[in-house]
Design a protein that fits this description.
- Helix content is about 55%, strand content about 10%.
- The strands form 2 sheets. The chain has a 6-stranded parallel sheet, with helices on both faces. The chain has a two-stranded parallel sheet with strand order 7-8.
- It is an alpha/beta fold and about 325 residues long.
- The chain has 3 domains: about 5-135, P-loop containing nucleotide triphosphate hydrolases (Rossmann fold); about 145-205, Helicase, Ruva Protein, domain 3, CATH 1.10.8; about 210-335, Up-down Bundle (Zinc Finger, Delta Prime, domain 3).
- The termini are far apart.
């Protein structure tokens, strides 16, 4: 099969691009977008052919195993969909093996490579990028990037939104495709057979920008912006947040920061921390939290834990207002 010279984004990716023998390179750090593209490829190929799915990992596979797996003419082989995750971890020998195959791929199997990034200093990566359909799977960097994704999802679901509903939806969701998808599914269930989603539907389903406020609060703590953190604290307390709920989120933030700092101390790379050690965070938040640790040290966070313990006791044992106690807690923590 000839080379497929094409480049697209996950939002623009079309089933028309999917065929057995076509190979794909998914590049980026948004796990939700990556999984959505992989699922569409898998479902489409299985509708067209009886395809066996094989999953391998770039930090585990060796060249000899890779050669055996890519041998499409083995008497034991059927049509295959080979999913190679963590492709950025492939060593040079394995990369060269892969590039040699990509130059003349078999037309009875499809290879999907998933990499956070590719190093174009290697000729093999240049070859792979040239011969595969390249799909960018980057997280949204600003709210406006959610709009093309939203338009595409609505079209697939047979729904539409009024302009006001679309603006309200984008302004109230977290800057994260996975979260946006969850909220959109709620709206679909809420509106049932009604084809158009209104602003009232969005307000009823999503309500206030609670999640967005929390993410902004984390960012203020991470960058040690005292004024922003205090403003966001007051915003949460003036809505439906209880004192202990806010305190829990502050504690959770510093527990994650402390764990990342310990991993760094053990010489675990930031990329490995993002890939394997922050499962409780959204994919788009993982790198942010790693970056936050540049503003903290282990001794500082240990001091902050002392402040948190003191605040916890005061919240439970004194009659002082939670607003005051949490404000004092943040002022002490961010000045460490």
């Amino acid at each position: 099969m000839g080379a497929v010279l094409n480049q697209t984004t996950a939002q623009e990716f079309s089933e028309e691009q999917i065929a057995l023998g076509t190979n794909f390179l998914l590049v980026g750090s948004d796990a939700f977008l990556i999984d959505s593209v992989v699922d569409r490829i898998r479902i489409s190929l299985r509708q067209q052919n009886e395809v066996d799915l094989v999953i391998i990992y770039g930090d585990e596979i060796k060249s000899a195993q890779l050669l055996d797996l890519l041998d499409a003419y083995s008497v034991f082989s059927n049509a295959k969909l080979i999913l190679l995750r963590n492709a950025e971890a492939l060593k040079k020998k394995e990369l060269d093996t892969l590039a040699d195959y990509i130059k003349q791929p078999a037309d009875i199997q499809t290879l999907v490579l998933v990499a956070e990034k590719t190093d174009l200093k290697f000729t093999a990566w240049k070859t792979i990028r040239e011969k595969c359909v390249l799909v960018a799977c980057d997280p949204p960097r600003f709210a406006g990037q959610i709009r093309p994704w939203l338009d595409g999802q609505l079209q697939r679901l047979g729904k539409s939104m009024t302009p006001a509903a679309s603006e309200t939806f984008i302004s109230r969701i977290e800057l994260d495709y996975a979260n946006a998808s969850n909220e959109l599914q709620k709206l679909v269930l809420l509106t049932l057979d009604r084809p158009q989603i209104t602003e009232q539907d969005v307000l009823r389903c999503i309500g206030t920008s609670r999640v967005g406020t929390l993410i902004d609060f984390y960012r203020a703590l991470g960058s040690r912006q005292t004024r922003s953190a205090m403003d966001l604290l007051q915003r949460m307390l003036s809505s439906d947040w209880e004192t202990l709920q806010v305190f829990f989120q502050i504690s959770r933030f510093y527990q994650i920061i402390y764990r990342i700092l310990l991993l760094k101390k053990d010489h675990i790379s930031p990329a490995e921390i993002v890939r394997s050690h922050l499962g409780e965070l959204f994919a788009t938040q993982k790198q942010e939290f790693v970056n936050f640790t540049n503003n903290y040290s282990l001794p500082e966070v240990r001091e902050i834990f002392g402040i948190l313990l003191e605040t916890d006791a005061r919240i439970k044992l004194t009659a002082a207002e939670g607003n005051i106690l949490l404000s004092l807690c943040l002022l002490k923590a961010l000045k460490q």
